[in-house]
Amino acid sequence: MHIRHQDLTTAEVRSSHLHRLHRVTLFSAAICHITQGSKVIIQDDSRLVAGPGELIIIPANTPL
């Protein structure tokens, strides 16, 4: 699903495998809704774990 309205874009990403990303910078703000499993975000010395039903809000230009 991909919808674009002026400057607002949404996309749905589904994955059944663990993906590890290193040194990624998000240039656009992001809101991630976790529907199953969990997501771990590590930034410097901080570690965030989100589970089903939780939202992760990431500001633009955030290095992860």
TrEMBL record:
User: Highest taxon of the source?
Assistant: Bacteria
Designated name of the protein: AraC family transcriptional regulator
